[in-house]
Specification:
The protein has 53 residues and is an alpha+beta fold. It has a two-stranded antiparallel sheet with strand order 1-2. The chain is elongated. It starts with a helix and ends in a 6-residue tail after the last strand. Helix content is 40%, strand content 21%.
Amino acid sequence: MFTSTEKLGVYLEDRPPGWSRALVDDLVASGRYSLAHRDGFEAVLVRTAQVPA
């Protein structure tokens, strides 16, 4: 979510603007991670406990 990482993805990897925020949102929506902290520059994800199948 760092500005430099976002721009790297947009300009060098042809990703759409906002791609890093969308990635964090997808990881949280999957249920495998929870969001511990988010501000305009960074996000801290915590891996949730997985129950063995």
